[in-house]
Amino acid sequence: MFNNLQILQEKYQLQKQLGRTAAGHQTWLATDVNTEEKVTIKLLAFSPQMHWEELKLFEREAQVLQTLDHPRIPKYRDYFDLDKQIGEGVPWFALVQDYIPGFSLQELLEQGKRFSEAKIRKIAQETLEILIYLHQLCPPVLHRDLKPSNLILGEDEHIYLIDFGAVQAQAAVTGVTFTVVGTSGYAPLEQFWGRAVAASDLYALGATLIHLLTGISPADLPHQDSRIQFRDRVNLQPDLIDWLEKITELAVEKRFANAEVALKALLSGRFISSTKKPKSFTNKLFQPYTSRIQLEQNERQLKIKIPAGGLARFNEVFNAGCGGLFVYYLLFSFSFILSAFTPTIGLFIWSFVGVYAALLCGTKTNISFEENTLELTRTFLGKKYGKQTYFNSEIIDIFIQRTGSIFQVGIRTINHTYNLGGALSQDEAVWLAGEIRQWLNLNG
Q1: Above pLDDT 70, what percent of the chain?
Q2: Which residues touch 90 (CB under 8 Å, ≥6 apart)?
Q3: Is 265 exposed, middle or buried (0-12, 13-18, 19+ CB in 10 A)?
Q4: What's the rounded Cα separation, in Å, for the pair 207 and 14?
Q5: Where are the domains of the chain?
Q6: Which of 60, 137, 206, 349 sees the fewest Cβ atoms within 10 Å?
Q7: Cβ(159)–Cβ(216) below 8 Å
């Protein structure tokens, strides 16, 4: 039907067929006769046997590719249809993209290639960088068919993502059914329900990496509780094994929240592994009897309310123990006496000291750890402000810091450090830090 050296659209000369399917799909390596650049041409036959859904996906792929601009995604070049004379009585549609010289990871597997841990980490990192770009578009672009045959290891040793034939260029909406696509073993369960989300691409990446490591398709590996069993077949650092198990969790909510979080966890090697032991709370920690911190916890949630610093804040300001209280006593006394002689100045000083003291002493902190996220809010005079939300997978450490006689608990993440506030005693800080570490499974 199509032959080597045949010219399509008076512009593209076919060089070699790269692949075909029984469903009327063909892929060719061709040359742009005007620029002498190599291109890839995907062809779809508009035959009676073709399902309309195939044409819909083919057109969607062309539309989405026109909007993409990433160095690791082959650029869109052209889209056209061929008449029946050229296609031997059947109309064809053609999509043209840049050609990426190299081999697909599937081809390398078939050649007996085995991948080192360093290579796996590099493939994971570069693929995640592509997914971050796709998922952060508006609307997000979901690939939905990530697998070894759709990842090219280029001659420049970089990873390229190809074949957007299953792409979904819209956010998943509850109650809306999308085209069911994907490849068994790589596509997660929710995708076969027509409910693909960004984390679906993450699962497919994890399954792909497991295939590269074991040389066995994930569909052929043993499963337990719907989880791919591969630990006994690989020799990797524990953090990478945990990372692979988390990214291939059956439940969407147990995977990494998004590609960016997955990448940070991969690079840092620190995150809350889904394979850690369930929180048993058997190592009971005892709250100091004088503490006014309110703490509630269960398997899925940890809530902490840290009251305002109170008089202890005065000492913290001057870092002088009781001297802080004495200084504030003098300021209040002076402003009171001065107001009797110079009301305006005295009232100003009185107001300044009062407001400053309220700011220091009147801020309450509320912390809520959910299964995947941390939410931190502060309350002053009954009003909430400064709401912050972070992913638990970004947390590296819970630590204690001291200012004079005041202790506070802090959270260190990959990029930032956050102070939970309050004016705690040493015993309170040790207890609170221990409770948070234990709930997050950071101990040991």
Answers
A1: 77
A2: 24, 45, 46, 47, 84
A3: buried
A4: 34
A5: 7-98, 102-268, 294-440
A6: 137
A7: no
Cβ count within 10 A of residue 311: 12
145 is catalytic: yes
The pLDDT assigned to 85 comes to: 55
Give dist(CA 405, CA 387) in Å, integer: 28
Mean pLDDT of 398-422: 82
What pLDDT digit, counting tens, does each position of 37-70 carry? 999 999 998 876 677 778 888 999 999 999 999 9
Q: Across-strand partners of 82? A: 92
Question: 375 forms bridges with which residues in the sheet?
Answer: 368, 389
CA-closest candidate to residue 310, choices 428, 433, 398, 435: 428
Amino acid letter, 271: F
- Regarding the domain delimited by 7-98, which CATH topology (the fold level of the hierarchy) does it fall under? Phosphorylase Kinase; domain 1 (3.30.200)
Q: Which of 98, 145, 156, 242 is catalytic?
A: 145
- The per-residue pLDDT for 219 is 92
Amino acid at 382: G
CATH topology assigned to domain 294-440: PH-domain like (2.30.29)
List the structure tokens of 426: 């040493």
| Spatial CA neighbour of 205 closest among 251, 171, 255, 169 | 255
> Distance of CA 235 to CAs 84, 170, 197, 213, 232, Å?
55, 39, 31, 9, 8
Structure token digits, residue 29: 């390596």
Q: Does domain 102-268 have CATH number 1.10.510.10?
A: yes
Whether 265 contacts 395, CB under 8 Å: no
How many DSSP H helices and E strands does the chain contain? 11, 19
CB 424 within 8 A of CB 409: yes
Q: What is the DSSP string of 344-372?
A: HHHHHHHHHHHHHHHHHHSEEEEEEE-SS
Token pair 């009327």 is at which residue?
24
The single-letter DSSP state of residue 278 is: P
**SS3 track for 53-98:** HHHHHHHHHHHHHHHCCCCCCCCEEEEEEECCCCCCCCCEEEEEEE
